[in-house]
Amino acid sequence: MIPRIHQQGSNTLGLLHYLYGKGTREEHVDPHLAASFDGMAPDPGRDASVTKKDLQHLLDQPLSLLDAGQRPDKHVWHCSVRAAPDDPLLSDEQWGDIARRVVAATGIDPGDGAGCRWAAVRHADDHIHIIATLVREDGLRPSHHRSGKRAQAECRLVEKELGLHQVAPGDGTAAKRATSAERHKAEREGRDRPARDELRENVRRAVAGAAGEEEFFDRLAAAGLLIHKRIAPSGDLLGYKVALPHDRNGDREPVFYAGSTLAPDLSLPRIRERWIPPTEATASADGARPGQPALPDVTGPAFARRRASAAAWQSLLIIDCGEDGTAAAQIAAAGEILDALAKTSAAYTRAELRQAAFTFERASRSHVKAERGRDHALREAARDLVHSGPALGRGEDGATTAMLIDMAFFLAVAASNWHAKKRHSQQADAARKASEHLRVAYQAAAAHPMSVLRQRGQRLAPRVRQRQADLLHQVLPDLATRVQDESAWPALASTLDEARRAGHDPAALLTDAARRRELGTATSVSDVLVWRLRRRAHLPALPESRSGTSSRGTGRQRSSAPSTPLVHSPVKDSSRRPDRKAAQHSR
Prior knowledge:
Order of helices and strands: EHEHEHEEHHHHEEEHHHHHHHHHHHHHH
Number of domains: 3
Number of helices: 21
Structural class: alpha+beta
């Protein structure tokens, strides 16, 4: 149940005309009173002998107790209370009781006999509107400071008592929602979403991996946004505002939004915190551990995705083992990875990745202060993704995209678990939902490369397949039988053989990959291990075919037996933690 305190106004009759009218889209049905301050207010919706002006006159009578110069300029208090879509239909009596509890909790009518006059209008099954005059019967002003939070707290109690959907409590770090006027404006203009939401996504993408102010503003301009910078007399940049070119007010002027009004972490001072130089302890994203060569210094979407996968793995270990501030920084930077991935991936995965990034945004902020600088590896990886350009959904690009989406999924799960332990319910829920979108994106991205790897495994000589099976039973005796029953087992066998032929020790690689993070809750252990092995051994994500030509297929190609997503249950914590030694050698 969501209560929302609207901006105070000065026109009681105007608001009543809206509440008792047909609505902007003919959505108001049977407007009528559900409750009022005295239980006897006239109802112009059900009583033909009274008018809206009669109700307005009754509500505004306390204003006459004050001299004209003492009356508040904006005396109209307006609160809407909306039930969740899956809540049962509530009666007028139940809505009336909810209205009385809300006005008491917010201080509008605390029950002392001299509260404000108010009325609750119901014009739809799932919500009510409460209108009140902000002058008490004794001529004093009500004590309604922080009425929004007080209404939220009361609604949480109502949900429990009535068995309604329980909304996760907020902590004041969420982005401001679009107003009803902004939503209706978008609908009138045929836009998918309000300008506020579109601008927030564009600014987030511009921030992802940006190295400084110049690059940030260049990206905003490249996205087609109008930019207004606030400059001090000294010439220093103090802040910025952005607008969509087509979003205009009644005077045909652009409607600008300051970064801080889009989201708390999009103000210029908060964005500048991301540009803190990395500390000496900051992990690099080259994917190599001490004594191993780094990835080749080659540019391109596939290599950018490999580097990002390595950085994401390092981030997982930090979230599991690091201090709170460092973990919060990793989670915030994970949002930049998702933004960059959504911006640069092929069309057939873009919608789910974009939704994952949009949903995960709520998980990137909490009251735990992020220790910037330690997130440099992930932010640099996001920058690489953006600068490497769009990745086609074919060949190595498509396969490394699947590899990175796999790691992004585990990042989202780790973020959800971390927030859940901190009792950040909204953030934990957002990260969990993002992981579900990543699960779907992985299925689309991995279908073709895993099909190719399975086919290669099925063509292995019987003695080679048996060698890999023996190795599996040696290293993972508890999981070996399960793995061999999975459809992706041939892909794992092929990968182990390929690693051996590349000069690696398959047993050492498999042991290392298996101990890094628990496997028991994986939907497909084979899928998990394939990507870990290929990344750790620096094998091509999609190998050349035996004929010597690249086994590239279109990004939309699907195998006859699509791969199971390599996912863990997002609601369970890992039963095993990587030890400190593993964390030190994670690269």
